[in-house]
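Class, carefully examine what follows:
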Amino acid sequence: SWVVGRGALALAQQLGFQPDVIILSETPTLFAHPRIAVDGHTKDPFFAKTRCVFNDHTPLEYAHPIWPQSVLDMTKMNPAFYGPYLRDGKIDVTQALVAEAEGVFGVAEKHARVMRAMPSLKPYAEKIHHITNGVHTPYWQERVFHLADRISDEDLLKAKETLKAEFLDWFWRRALLWPHWAKKVRSLPIILWTRRITSYKRLDILDKIFDDPARRQRFLDAGVVLIVGGRVYQRDNASEKMVYELVEDLNHDEALGERVVFLNNYNVWEAPRLFHGSDASIMLSDDGREASATGFMKAQMNGAAVIANPDGAVPESVFDAAVDPARANGFNVTYTHGQPDVDSFLTALEKFSATYKNPAQRARLIRASLAVTPQVSVERTAREMEAFFSRL
């Protein structure tokens, strides 16, 4: 962190590149702030006009470290910078960066509210804004959907079915399944659960469903297929346990094993195939723990529905029919004690499956998802970021 931060400043000076803005993206980038350490950059006039902006990507505790005096001394932190925030020989790194930065933003409207509510950041609530994440449309959106508003519902559904057939033909090979599996699930809706696997993203909700006979049957009766994939961080024992428990469920239940399948070690080059050919995407998290999430955005710009909690950036582009029927493109999952409710999730799967089976409703759902493409595009993010920097 120190080498990258101070090294970036040294490189900029060596190249004669005088930045208008330095973005400190999460706390590990703190040493890119010229004044934070005692060295030749602390009062360097080369950076006198440079504005520093801090943006946060997660409300989780690990991303908001508390450093003791010994670490401050070891890293040559500038007492003039951290002094006002020293409490009992420690500093809250996030608090210091937010206080000293000329601009601050979270990556979704709800995330900014979560940041403002953090005890150490409450005094700076007025300066915390939001610029919601987006994704690169040319990379993630299949070309046929660029012209969706010019074709009939019938042709739109045909295009979606063609992409789905191509996807399943690729997927059974890539996931080391059998061709008869692809034929068996061809008429069922395909739902992605392709997210980083960690405790607050609640993959364990599936184990809760499958361990309960009545809920297991509801899942099977919903007639959906889940494709599960995502990385697990090293030494994340809780997340590994979630995966092992789910695998155990599937290994002992042939019916479930056909409806929930894993895609191992997929990468960013393969990922667009998933979103082009799937029918829906899941985004669950504990309340207030998701900063933004972008997987569901990639699904939306390919006409897929979203089954999600109202967390991260979800409330900004996912609309449930019960709340906003004119823009309905998703199915809400409620919270119970801050965690996704199991039965609400099953109900969302059932509602989506029923919609999928009705061609007219399915076409409306696809169009409503495609309609939010400008909102979930990184081009919108870039415009908002440019405007934010201009106001500093």
About this structure: The CA atoms of residues 181 and 243 lie 22 Å apart. Residues 153-174 form the longest helix (22 residues). The chain has two domains: 2-130, 137-376.
